[in-house]
Amino acid sequence: ILERFHTQIQNNDKEEQIFEKLNITIMENKSWREKVVRLHFLLTVKESAVNVPTNLDARRRITFFANSLFMKMPSAPKVRDMISFSVLTPYYREDVLYSVDELNNENEDGISTLFYLQKIYPDEWKNLQKRINDPKFNYSDADKEEATCHWASYRGQTLSRTVRGMMYYKQALELQCFLESAGDNAIFGGYRIMESSQEDERASAQALVNMKFTYVASCQIYGAQKKSDDWRDRSCYKNILHLMIKYPSLRVAYLDEREEIVNGKSQKFHYSVLLKGGDKY
């Protein structure tokens, strides 16, 4: 009995050695070592309240992320085993991307859309100005106007904001698929910073996600906007085209109307069209 008790004590002592199998060779990876140093800095350094973000949405996101670190989350099922799903966004003639003229156009009260957004999001507007005026990035005047239009459009009821938000699903699935198949070195190096030898893993993840997730914008009059002489319709057409180029997995469905001669008479025919962007555009 004493021998059994002594053996049990030894086993318990052995189990208490929680750092016995600690693999310190992983610290040879520069990227992983930087993450450990950063984590140690976050856990040990007391920062003043001055460094707390003033933006309420930024606080909410950081708080949610910090709380999620202490959650007992179950393991997510593999992307390969998930059921494919599609998302459809109906669109008719709503704003796609605000233009400079639309942002500066004043209403009957003398208030423009850009002025209103500047007052609603003063800290975010200040951060935007700091980025686009930084000499390090060397923004041209055209680039500044484009960045301002995107900044305003992502804070209004526009199609570009909706498309960007839905494409986060695809980005999240690609990251999950990459983490499921990649090795330790690839994970520690990061998904966005990959070596040429790891490009096959990213391509495989993107191909698998394309089979699992489909996003379609139902732009009913896209064909008519393409042929229209109205400046707003042409602007919507070009902006939708730019969205397809920016997000290659985006699909645009619309009804096309054609006139064809049948038995010597002109008749209208309607076709269902599904478009996707590409480099040739």
TrEMBL record:
One of its GO terms (biological process) is (1->3)-beta-D-glucan biosynthetic process. Transmembrane segments: none annotated. Residues 7-45 form the Callose synthase helical domain. It comes from the Eukaryota. InterPro entries: CALS1_helical, Glyco_trans_48_dom. GO terms for cellular component: 1,3-beta-D-glucan synthase complex; membrane. Residues 52-133, 141-277 form the Glycosyl transferase domain. One of its GO terms (molecular function) is 1,3-beta-D-glucan synthase activity. PANTHER family: CALLOSE SYNTHASE 7, LYST-INTERACTING PROTEIN LIP5 DOPAMINE RESPONSIVE PROTEIN DRG-1. This is 1,3-beta-glucan synthase. It comes from Citrus sinensis (Sweet orange).
